[in-house]
Amino acid sequence: MKILMVSAEVVPFAKTGGLADAVSALAIVLNKLGHDVRIVMPRYYKIDRSKLTPLEGPMGVPAGYVEAWTEVYTTIMPGTKNLPVYFIDHEQCFGRDGIYGTPTDTDFQDNPYRFSVLCHGAFQLCRKLDWYPDIVHAHDWSAALAPVLLKFVERYNGFDKTASVFTIHNLGYQGVYGKHNYPATGLDWNFFYAAGFEDWDRINFLKAGLTSANMLTTVSPTYAREIQTPMAGFRMDALLRHRSGDLVGILNGVDTEIWNPSKDKYLAENYSVGKLAGKAKDKAALQERMGLEVNPDIPLFGVVTRLADQKGVAEMFAPTYGSMYRICTEMKVQVVVLGAGEKWCEDELRTLESKLPNFKAYIGYDESLSHQIEAGCDFFLMPSRYEPCGLNQMYSLLYGTLPIVHRTGGLADTVENYNEATGDGTGFMFDELTPQSVFDTVGWAVYAWYNKPEHIKAMQKRAMKKDFSWESSAEKYLEVYKAALSRI
Ligand code: ADP
In this predicted model, which residue has the larger pLDDT, 65 or 211? Predict the structure, then answer.
């Protein structure tokens, strides 16, 4: 199949979250299976032009009222022989820091126009290459205009055999802007309602994508069900119920070249199911690096997260009612946190660290520490309010670090709850997110650590044997692509 991925972020070129990992990993596996996959994304300021190859001639992109003149650059995706990535280069739109915004200006006000240039550009690029894909696969709201353009415009301009698939990586981000931005789409006002942009008299890019794509996917089966309910549907639940016959949940995989304790280059010592001894050295190294007491007998809990409400950070860290202070004072544990994000939360982490000798926080983004926490901890705390798929709990399982999670979305699909009677399970779960349930479930894990060490060992081994490869997910996407083609 010929597949064009459209995404605002793609590893290793630009990333804010799991979306960027998923797009490139899926593309790479499909490429290995022999499909003609190509990726199109913006060339942000930080992506060095001198390392890319320019395509000949400028490319006109009919976003907004007038044509935008862009350049296109290309390179081959690292780790592949023939997976091209195309970069749309437009100084006015993408020649700045940040993908959607900057720390001080979190949402660029011209995002409707910027991502309209990306999506229109995707089709212009195909014309320029004289390459017409079977599937346009758009990811998240910033690429949602692509299925809309296909259905209402491009279908009649040479893309009559192309079908679209739209993947929701996180329904919480929808791209909602004032209606005055609508002309940025380059579409006639007829389509304001017809294509599903209208959202309480504003424009909603995600909603238009959900209305227009031939098939919809999201990144775990449980999340696919949850988003059809008012609780987790972010106001899109009715539309998603309406389209439930076209909506499929496919779990993301893990890049086991990077996330593999037996060859992880960031670890003090590599280890595997058969050779677990190395994990103890990684624990000691982490305790040492973070300035904690080096002691194998104290259970060590890790957190690696964006400090955002979605991740349950209030239930853990909020002043007065968050559970962390009680966890660290009432239980014999150690906790390390790696995260960046909301300022109140960063401040609170510093406050907790100043009060608690067994609590350490690193505020910022640190690749090596994220690996060392996965390897060195005994437990990984991930109480997300909602979690479309989640990567960190899967990394934790593969590293034998038992996850403590809220039973939601991808967390529910990947972690099996501990059964105290039999010792079965791969982690610890609670059903309702409250500070008390976080406290209680950490307490449950601590109880098992001190009283049922044989269960903990068996759970670690069971977790490390889990298969989260992209291959099986890619097969499921191919089924979705076929279903999309049958719906043209
Ligand atoms: P989301 O995409 O919602 O942020 P995921 O669990 O799907 O959550 O993916 C998060 C990714 O970002 C993981 O690869 C995780 O290790 C990484 N990550 C998050 N915060 C940090 C940080 N402060 N330092 C290093 N890596 C981080």
Answer: 211
State the Cα–Cα distance between residues 47 and 273, nearest whole angstrom. Answer: 39
For residues 119 and 175, what is the distance between their CA atoms, to the nearest angstrom? 14
Q: Is the CB of 338 under 6 A from ligand 1?
A: yes
304 lines ligand 1 (CB under 6 A): yes
Banded pLDDT at 255 (limits 50, 70, 90)? confident
* Nearest-angstrom CA–CA distance, 141 and 8: 9
Residues with Cβ within 8 Å of residue 37, at least 6 apart in sequence: 3, 4, 5, 27, 30, 31, 83
Q: Edge-to-edge strands of the sheet including 202-204?
A: 176-178, 202-204, 198-199
Beta bridge partners of 139: 167
CA 243 to ligand 1 center in whole angstroms = 30
| Mean pLDDT within 367-387 | 97
As a whole-number percent, the residues of the chain with pLDDT over 70 amount to 100
Q: CA–CA separation, 100 vs 120, rounded Å?
A: 18
Q: Looking at the predicted structure, is the pLDDT value of residue 18 above 90?
A: no
Closest Cα to atom 15 of ligand 1: 392
Q: What is the mean pLDDT of the chain?
A: 97
Q: Which atom of ligand 1 is least distant from the CA of 169?
A: 2
Which tokens belong to 389? 């798929």
Burial of 409 (0-12, 13-18, 19+ CB in 10 A): buried
